[in-house]
Amino acid sequence: MIRIGVWLGDRNEDRDWIARLATLIPGARVEGLAEAVPDTLDYALVWAPPEGLLSRQAALKAVISVGAGVDHVLRVADLPRHLPILRTTGPDMVQRLREYVALHVLAHHRDLMDTDARQARAEWQVFVTPTANRRRVGVMGLGRIGAACAQTLAALGFDTAGWARSPRDLPGVRTYGGEAGLAEFLDRCEILVCLLPLTADTADILNAGLFARLAPGAAVINAGRGGHLVEADLLAALDAGRLSGATLDVFRTEPLPPDHPFWRHPRIRVTPHIASYVDPDSGARVVAQNILAFDRDGTLPDIADPGRGY
After folding, report:
1. What pLDDT score does 232 carry?
2. Which range marks the domain in which residue 111 is found?
3. Same domain, 133 and 192
4. Is 33:53 a contact under the CB 8 Å cutoff?
5. pLDDT of residue 23
6. Which residues pair with 159 in a beta bridge?
7. In percent, how much of the chain has pLDDT > 70?
8. What is the reported pLDDT for 126?
9. Mean pLDDT score, 98-127
10. Of 15, 46, 78, 157, which sees the most CB atoms within 10 A?
11. How far apart are CA 265 and CA 239, in angstroms?
12. Cross-sheet strand order for the sheet of 3-7
């Protein structure tokens, strides 16, 4: 019998995942991680678990992240470091990110922030934006999801480039790799999309120095992690006109506090970490398949590399 504990930080959400996994893995015992008897679980399905939950389960075979990122697991101080961490990706998650990135790149490309402001003033003003092939867009992070998003933008006609820590070959997308390629990549970007994993190397990467390299009036979209962004630097760049706008889906503190200046800034669009939400229906199918495969073979393509942080 496979024994699974679930912790997502919301009891209603936990119950939904528990119910779905129980139907997808016949004979499995699925319960709340916090309520499970110590040393009785094989797998822990988690998002940002508090300290003390994982370390009390000495029989665990693996920890499963509800999402592609694993930084929320790696920062748990008492995480048993020998445990494999399985990432959760799948076609629905990739599709949602493709939709989100396309939507917000198009919104910045077609100046919808200015259009919304003119509507609020009942101001009719015709303006012309360039066609997509004349707009240079860059995607930081070319893993499975980032690559799909970059190719989606290229299919829409955008002059699309991508950057990753190592060189990649991506049809239809100009690619750059490593520190040597970063400056040239940034210099061409009019709209920058961050889909990087959060690691020691990428923390605070969206900062004043990076903004200064982008094309004047560039826009920034962050759907990676809140820890990528130096918040004060973004506000300063927007207020100085160095950047024209930003769409932010991830934040250092979530939920974003009601008094945070991002909520009311006229050049920032806030979305509540929904770019690629892993829902119980589609996500549980991926998790169940991964658990069954890992339990059978002891390996999986979506095992994270803690040394790299993703």
Report:
1. 98
2. 91-270
3. yes
4. yes
5. 97
6. 136
7. 100
8. 95
9. 97
10. 46
11. 9
12. 29-32, 3-7, 43-46, 62-65, 85-86
CA 274 to chain centre: 9
84 and 190 inside one domain: no
Residues 6+ apart with CB under 8 A from 179: none
Shortest CA distance to 163 belongs to which of 151, 153, 152, 174? 174
**Could you give the residue numbers annotated as active site?**
225, 273
Please check whether residue 305 lies inside any domain of the structure.
no
User: Does 310 reside within a domain?
Assistant: no
CATH number for the domain that contains residue 140: 3.40.50.720
What confidence tens digit (pLDDT) does each residue in 38-54 have?
A: 999 999 999 999 999 99
Enter the pTM of the model: 0.95
User: Is residue 288 located within the same domain as residue 261?
Assistant: no
Same-domain check for residues 122 and 235: yes
Using CB atoms within 10 Å of the CB of residue 190, give its burial: 0 to 12 exposed, 13 to 18 middle, 19+ buried.
Answer: buried
Same domain, 111 and 77: no
How many domains are there within the chain?
2
Q: Are both 147 and 175 inside the same structural domain?
A: yes
Same domain, 35 and 110: no
**What pLDDT is recorded for position 267?**
98
Among 268, 175, 262, 260, residue whose Cα is nearest residue 219? 268
Are 80 and 164 part of one and the same domain? no
Q: How far is CA 224 from CA 71, 90, 275, in A?
A: 11, 17, 9
Q: What is the pLDDT of residue 291?
A: 98
